[in-house]
Amino acid sequence: MIGPVDLDLGGTPQRHRVVVAMSGGVDSSVVAALLARAGYDVLGVTLQLYDHGAATHRKGACCAGQDIRDAREVAGRIGIPHYVLDYESRFRDAVIDRFAASYAAGETPVPCVDCNQRVKFADLLSTARDLGAAALVTGHYVSTCRLPDGRRALFRASDEDRDQSYFLYATTSAQLELLRFPLGDLTKAETRAIARDIGLPVADKHDSQDICFVPQGRYSDVVERLKPEAAEPGDIVHLDGRVLGRHAGIMRFTVGQRRGLGLASPEPLYVVALDAARRRVVVGPREALAARRIVLREVNWLGDGDLAVAVAARQQVYVKVRSTRPPQAATLVPGADGVEVHLDDGEDGVAPGQACVFYQSPGGGARVLGGGVIRRADIAEPVQTPAVA
Fold first, then answer.
1. Active-site residue set
2. Which of 52, 206, 294, 353 has the fewest CB atoms inside 10 Å of its own CB, making it the most exposed?
3. Is 265 annotated as a binding residue?
4. What is the arithmetic mean of pLDDT over 336-343?
5. Per the annotation, does 86 bind a ligand?
6. Where is the tRNA-specific 2-thiouridylase MnmA-like central domain (predicted)?
């Protein structure tokens, strides 16, 4: 059991109302329980984000059906008020529609980033303020602390295997002033042990999936319904211009993919680019995946000073180009199309639509300096083959 939780709000806990975003999982449940024990005036809030009828009995769902009931049961067990807010329309507009549009454009999106930034840390944070809360608290595995200049900074979790900073890079400095993450120094095993010690009914509950709104994990069903053009068939084209086969929609592919291409080839082939305009999946050898230069859009800067100054000074950083990849040494560089990231050693399979997140150092507990959405990388471009008469 860990000691009393201090949210760095000043004064005694009893003076402060806090809102805990309760997903119904073990992490946010433990946070709510620890804060209630510490004496904070805790309000539990669960967001209903999509039609939860179909998800009620589905493992890996969050923010729907059984999870809402679990959150309500935990709130009753620890003696705090619990509210369910209907955010379905906001979630559809800010997350699901953008998710489908990104796939239709030949990208591989990260919907958790949009959910955190455009729903939880925007709409829910505003709701928390309306409720008179001094902080919005979540069960994410990251940390914040106050810098010498008075600003709050975001840091990776101590446990690198549980770190969720990749999905939170778009959090703004203003939002960090009101956000708190008490689990940043714990492992998942320690969190579950606390839940068992407290007697929470969700102590051994499974973790939720990343894409919570996708029934049975078939994201293509969602994309095809909202963006049917993403399911239109097209050619699978080799970098050298040869048409090797047909596909059933570019939404079924991502840069770096090897399996599921449906090709009979003597050499291993990988998806190296998606040409949405011409509905082409471009494949090539593994070496064609290597990227050293990444162009970003929608960059959020959490480092010291201005982003423009850091880029002009070619600041050294460490970057993650997928949530499962370790941070790699890189340099921020000004480019004609915006901020560029030049990788010291290169990366394979850098996919447009994914996040590129900046860190001050490579290990656990490192400060998060921001990040952006990958617009493109300097991998091989689709071959311009002549049209057939």
1. 115, 212
2. 206
3. no
4. 94
5. no
6. 231-284
Residue pointed to by tokens 């002549």: 386
Nearest-angstrom CA–CA distance, 165 and 63: 20
Domains belonging to the chain, first-starting first, are 15-139+182-216 (3.40.50.620), 232-284 (2.30.30.280), 291-377 (2.40.30.10)
Tens digits of residue pLDDT in 126-171? 999 999 999 999 999 999 999 999 999 999 999 999 999 999 999 9
Two structure tokens written together for 247: 């596909």
Closest CA to 376 of 312, 306, 301, 292: 292
Q: What is the mean pLDDT of residues 331-336?
A: 95
Q: Which residues contact 31 (CB under 8 A, 6 or more apart)?
A: 20, 137, 138, 139, 182, 183
Sheet holding 179-180, edge to edge: 82-86, 41-48, 17-21, 135-137, 179-180
26 is in an annotated binding site: yes
C-alpha dist (Å) from residue 50 to 54, 287, 334: 10, 41, 40
Q: If you average pLDDT over residues 214-238, what whole number do you get?
A: 88
3-state helix, strand, coil in the chain (%, to 5): 30, 25, 45
Token pair in block for residue 23: 């997903």
